[in-house]
Amino acid sequence: MLCHDNMEDCFIGECQQCSTKSLINILTANINVDMNENCSWTTWKKLNNKFDLQQTTGSVEALFAQIEAEWPSFILHTFCNRRQREYIAEIRTQSTKTTFIVAQMDFSMNYTLIRQREVQQGFFSQHQVSLFTIHLTIGKEHRDIAIISNSMEHNVAFVYCAQQILVDYTPWFPVEFNYGPQHQIVLYFYSSDGCSSQFKNNANMLNLVHHKNDFNLDASWAFTATGHGKGAGDGVGAVLKSTAR
What we know:
- It is a single chain.
- By secondary structure, the chain is an alpha/beta fold.
- The protein has 2 domains: 8-89, no CATH class; 95-244, Nucleotidyltransferase, domain 5, CATH 3.30.420.
- Helix content is 35%, strand content 30%.
- The chain has 7 helices and 9 strands.
- The chain has helices spanning 8-12, 23-27, 60-94, 156-169, 202-209, 211-215, 232-244; strands at 38-47, 50-59, 100-113, 127-138, 141-149, 177-180, 183-185, 187-192, 218-223.
- A hairpin with a 2-residue loop joins strand 4 and strand 5 (141-149).
- The protein is globular.
- The N and C termini lie far apart (49 Å).
């Protein structure tokens, strides 16, 4: 369906060869398909600000038409996801104790505190804590950090406080990254998903601009593609919860 797996023009619809191909003709090549035959299929749709699996019934032609309509956005999303993953993986391989540190961070789902031998009414007054997980890559060495807080606000202020704890925890500072005889900087590379209320927003970018003044460290930030933010931090949260239970 695409000429090349790594060419941007093929994924954004500007390739002279890919753009002339019909997706329906490719799917129906060498097979007999009755376009008027009825069929049913399921798709994820957003209704009332919630995503749910919806079943649709129609002709095969309608199914192919929907696939072809959603195909450009799908391959663009696939391209962005691959490039972001490759970039973050490459950054990790370049990290050393004398260059920079990669910190992948994310919120884990809140943990409900359950007290043993509680009375029946205690079920209706359970408390929760927030779990913020960080996976550090420093060359070939890996460190995991979990921040437990009674604050239920998963916002930029929480992330900033987590950065303060992270900088105080890391024992390798200052780390000098030499770009030249007159350019010695300290670099922190953050990686996270693109949640707009936590990471990918103007307030967090403003904090990133002032990162050098606040922590005496230069920093950069990379976001994974939408829906592909799973990482080592999710495993940290899962182990922490299972151990607590």
